[in-house]
Amino acid sequence: MTKAPIRTVLLLAPLALLVSGCGLRPLYSGGSGGAVAGTLAHIEVTPIDGKSGWLMSNALRDRLAAGGTPQYRLDVRLDDKIAGFGVRRDDSVTRERRTLRARFQLVNLADGSVLLDDTAGSDAGIDVVQSEYATIAAENTALERLAGIVADQIVARVAVYARSRPAR
After folding, report:
1. Closest CA to 157 of 118, 114, 100
2. Residue 141 and residue 149: Cα distance in Å, rounded?
3. What's the whole-model pTM score?
4. How many angstroms separate the CA atoms of 118 and 123, rounded?
């Protein structure tokens, strides 16, 4: 072995130690048997009112893949708003913003304690066109997308909580 590769190894070894000690670790380490997956699999989603609630609860159930006896309950309250902000000279709206905000709580079913209380949200812009049908279809599509985005945020925050909580 020549001196150049040995020197390279000696220079890179401390860097490898620094990177390994930075504290980064996979969120879903342990796969389906890990702490995060175990927590997510035991969460029940309570019914949420309205069309946006139906979309949100389905999106959450798809992402949580719950099975077995629930140990936690996820309570979600939604705020779904559409506001016009682009206005023509004749006062007709040309652009809308649909905003979906969620306040959610993860509740321990054993004692009723709130383990996590947080919010998530997103918004989408919608072009208002002459066809009322096309505008309504765009509003519905935006709501479907927003429900998925907000559900992803909720599940990610619950997963981070599950990883950081003490093991039982």
Report:
1. 118
2. 12
3. 0.78
4. 18
Give the full edge-to-edge strand order of the sheet including 43-45. 43-45, 72-87, 93-108, 114-127
Say how far residue 144 (Cα) sits from the centre of its chain.
Answer: 14
The three-state (H, E, C) secondary structure of the chain, written as one string = CCHHHHHHHHHHHHHHHHHHCCCCCCCCCCHHHCHHHHHHCCEEECCCCHHHHHHHHHHHHHHHCCCCCCCEEEEEEEEEEEEEEEECCCCCEEEEEEEEEEEEEEEECCCCCEEEEEEEEEEEEEECCCCHHHHHHHHHHHHHHHHHHHHHHHHHHHHHHHHHCCCC
Which tens digit of pLDDT belongs to each residue from 5-52? 776 766 776 666 665 555 545 555 454 456 677 788 889 999 999 999
